[in-house]
Specification:
It is a single chain. The chain is α+β, with helices and mostly antiparallel strands. About 60% of the residues lie in helices and about 10% in strands. The chain is built from 23 helices and 13 strands. The strands form four sheets. Strands 1, 2, 9, 10 and 11 form a five-stranded antiparallel sheet that branches. A four-stranded antiparallel sheet has the order 4-7-3-8, with helices on both faces. The chain is extended and about 135 Å long. Its main location: membrane.
Length: about 800
């Protein structure tokens, strides 16, 4: 919905009825079609109809242009992804996108994409080489340490053997030398492989190697402390350096296949210590060179992304607008000469002049020799529903639309919901301390709305920000009802005057009203604070809130039925006035309107009558004497009359309307063998959204069954809906008791220990319980219950909600939506 304040060229905002709509036809020359749609998108007051619905997207006139725009949109998304990874923020748009040409944008996007892809490819290759060299360096270090330690160990063992042999007998020398010479001929040259294997696979890797070679290997592994970047995946991984000794080419082949299966990277290694040192020096030098090259490449890439970021928003908006324009042009049909495009769409009546001005400007700016033609078509099709709202009323209208979009020019419940919704919420949430907390949180959102509206918020925060004015109204009404209930975090305060009651003597207890006498005038506003904490507090408040809930419910249901009268009057349906509105008013008020009157009389007179007994026996034994339950004179006679009226109103709702509609249908089509031809300018005569009454085939059985269901629903709903309003009493009581429990069992309990630490803990628990339970969960609970009372109990009395929303072609929505 467009937000409008009601000033300037537009008429004053009216939420009671949706804007008068018209079906318009535009005949636009081909040379000015693009600019015309662009200007209408800026205006945002035309909902185009698809005149090519029978064609597939590939058969339409501008399919090639849409494909072209889609390719440019892909490049823009690619740039956005690259900028996000690099942490580059796009700058705000300083110039208008109308000043740039789409062809220039296409060429520039192609050049920048090719350059960026090439830079990324080169950087990936360099980074892979760098990561391989880093792994190679680790292998040289760890394997070199292993070979060095093995060499030192072998040298020490050799010296030890030589020292032992020096002290042996010379007679045994030849035999020992002969044995050694024989053993030396049996020595085998062992090969080895080095590399890195992921640490989580190292044990399985070692076990598979052992089994595959039947134990004819020797393997050593060393843990690398820091994670390394894998050259293949580019992700950090914990790895071990391994050295595998083997004998024979067959064993080597098996080991190579197992390394490949486990993703182990192998690197060459030399036994020669001098060669190892030379390789380490070469690898370190190449790493330094690669690091310098990679840094230079990243710097160039970042400068390129900053260049893209300067123009990103401009290009993004231009591409989105062009794509939206061509999508809309594809909904237009070519005329017979193929020189003009014909468009049809809905627009508000007040927008006719702006649309014609936009058409004229487009024709002038595109140097078209022929202007566009604007004409209004007559149609029986039901128009879309369009309410012009502002930032205050839009959230309430969204609440109503969530139930169902109003039928065209149907009475809008949102007018009353602006007040009744926050008020019913406050009846269940009445505490002026909690209301102030809600108000402070909402004022933060309202005062910073300009900054917050331009930021991306979370789902819950986005929802709260969108309904900030509704929450403000809810908090204000909560403060009001909290003052009536005299509750501030469950505590009463004598704000307006001292209590009207006082103790008779010093011995009276705080836990009872016995001994209290009235010494002053009645407490001027709300509940007397003396009721708080007494034994009779709960029965008194239960009685008060229960009766108040019934009064509020009956009042709101009566308002809903009265709205049905205004709907019937607006649509000139006398049948609905006489056989729907009047019987419904009689039925509801004969029963529950009468109950509401009894409640008020009882409050005013102080009568002790049992209203439960009165209402039950009004049905079971209407002729019995009332006795002590009589509230006013001639009550029995009044009850008999009301009961009779309620019973008579039911067949009045059920029977007359179907027969009258049947008679009207027959009279309308009597003597008509042929349907008269429609005028040629009526392009659409099929009613797709309206009611079928009055034309076409008339099914009396369907109408009668529908009326029967509607009557049963209303009669049963009158009872159930009235009982449903008792949730106002139940949730108000629950909120009050929860607040009292948190205060007494947490805060006062902690205060009683005379310990600072316990008091601090108690205050923290109290604050979190109040915020989490009372200000969040209870707020949500009361919100949902108020929502149900409006959707079910109030709106079902008059609101059909079977319309469809006006969705104009507008660049505002195009700029805001994500791909």
């Amino acid at each position: 919905m467009a937000e409008s304040g009601g000033g300037g060229c537009c008429p004053p905002m009216d939420l009671m009825r949706s804007e008068p709509m018209q079906l318009v036809q535009l005949i636009v020359p081909m040379e000015s079609a693009h600019l015309t749609v662009s200007y209408l998108g800026d205006l945002g007051l035309v909902q185009f109809k698809d005149l090519n619905s029978e064609k597939s997207p590939f058969q339409r006139t501008y399919a090639a242009q849409i494909k072209r725009c889609g390719e440019m949109a892909r490049k823009v998304r690619f740039f956005k992804d690259q900028m996000s990874k690099a942490g580059v923020v796009a700058k705000e748009m300083l110039e208008k996108e109308n000043h740039i040409d789409l062809d220039d944008v296409e060429v520039k996007l192609g050049e920048l994409e090719a350059e960026l892809v090439e830079i990324n490819a080169n950087n990936d290759k360099l980074q892979r080489s760098y990561n391989e060299l880093m792994e190679y360096k680790l292998v040289l270090q760890k394997a070199g340490e292993f070979f060095s330690s093995a060499h030192r160990s072998a040298t020490a063992q050799q010296r030890e053997i030589e020292s032992q042999q020096a002290g042996e007998d010379l007679l045994e020398s030849p035999l020992l030398q002969e044995k050694k010479s024989i053993d030396s001929t049996k020595q085998v040259k062992l090969g080895f492989l080095t590399g890195l294997v992921p640490r989580d696979k190292s044990m399985v890797f070692e076990r598979i190697l052992f089994r595959a070679t039947r134990g004819n290997i020797f393997i050593r592994q060393t843990v690398i402390e820091e994670p390394v970047i894998d050259p293949n995946s580019g992700e950090k991984a914990e790895k071990n350096v391994f050295v595998v000794f083997y004998s024979g080419e067959r064993a080597k082949s098996k080991i190579l296949k197992i390394c490949e299966a486990f993703g182990a990277n192998r690197y060459p290694f030399s036994e020669d210590l001098g060669r190892q040192a030379q390789m380490m020096t070469e690898v370190s030098g190449r790493l330094t060179e690669l690091k310098t090259t990679i840094d230079a490449g990243l710097g160039h890439r970042n400068s390129l992304l900053h260049t893209i970021g300067d123009k990103f928003e401009l290009w993004n908006l231009k591409v989105r607008k062009e794509k939206a324009i061509y999508h809309t042009l594809n909904m237009l049909s070519l005329d017979v000469t193929k020189k003009c495009l014909v468009a049809e769409g809905w627009s508000p009546v007040f927008a006719s002049k702006e649309i014609q001005d936009a058409l004229h400007r487009a024709a002038v700016d595109s140097n078209s020799q022929v202007g566009s033609i604007f004409q209004v078509l007559r149609t029986k099709e039901l128009p879309p529903t369009y309410f012009r709202t502002n930032k205050f009323t839009s959230a309430i209208q969204e609440i109503v639309d969530a139930y169902g979009v109003a039928k065209y020019q149907e009475a809008n419940p949102g007018v009353f919901t602006i007040v009744t919704f926050p008020f019913l919420f406050a009846v269940m949430f009445g505490d002026w301390g909690h209301g102030i907390c809600l108000l402070l949180a909402t004022m933060y959102l309202i005062l910073r709305e300009k900054k917050l509206s331009s930021q991306k918020l979370g789902d819950i925060m986005e929802m709260a920000f969108g309904g900030r004015y509704v929450i403000m109204m809810m908090s204000l009404f909560s403060i009001y009802t909290g003052l009536i209930y005299n509750e501030f975090f469950s505590l009463p305060f004598p704000l307006f005057a001292p209590s009207a009651y006082d103790c008779r003597d010093a011995s009276c207890s705080e836990a009872t009203t016995i001994g209290l006498i009235k010494v002053r005038d009645t407490y001027p506003f709300g509940l007397d604070p003396v009721w708080h904490g007494t034994r009779s507090e709960l029965p008194f408040l239960n009685s008060l809130k229960m009766k108040m809930s019934i009064l509020l419910g009956v009042s709101q249901m009566n308002l809903g039925i009265i709205m049905s009268y205004f709907n019937a009057r607006f649509f000139k349906s006398s049948v609905n006035i006489w056989f729907q509105f009047i019987p419904q008013m009689i039925f509801l008020n004969s029963l529950f309107g009468y109950l509401s009157v009894l409640i008020i009389i009882k409050w005013c007179t102080g009568s002790q009558a049992d209203l439960y007994h009165v209402m039950i026996y009004m049905f079971l034994s209407p002729t019995d004497e009332l006795g002590e339950n009589q509230v006013f004179p001639h009550q029995k006679t009044v009850q008999l009359v009301l009961l009779f009226l309620a019973l008579v109103s039911v067949p009045c709702m059920l029977l007359p309307k179907p027969f009258i509609l049947k008679k009207q249908h027959e009279a309308r089509h009597q003597g008509q063998s042929y349907t008269p031809l429609d005028e040629t300018d009526e392009s659409l005569q099929v009613e797709t959204h309206g009611s079928s009454h009055g034309h076409g085939e008339f099914e009396f059985s369907e109408i009668f069954v529908h009326q029967l269901i509607h009557t049963i629903e209303f009669v049963l709903g009158a009872v159930s809906n009235t009982a449903s309003y008792l949730r106002l009493w139940a949730l108000s009581l629950a909120h009050s008791e929860l607040s009292s429990v948190f205060y007494e069992k947490v805060l006062l309990l902690a205060w009683g220990y005379n310990n600072v630490l316990i008091l601090i803990v108690g205050i923290i628990v109290f604050v979190f319980a109040t915020v989490g339970v009372l200000l969040v969960m209870e707020t949500l609970s009361a919100f949902l219950h108020a929502l149900r009372l409006h959707w079910v109990e109030f709106q079902n009395k008059f609101y059909e909600g079977d319309g469809y929303k006006f969705a104009p072609f507008s660049f505002i929505f195009t700029a805001n939506e994500d791909e």
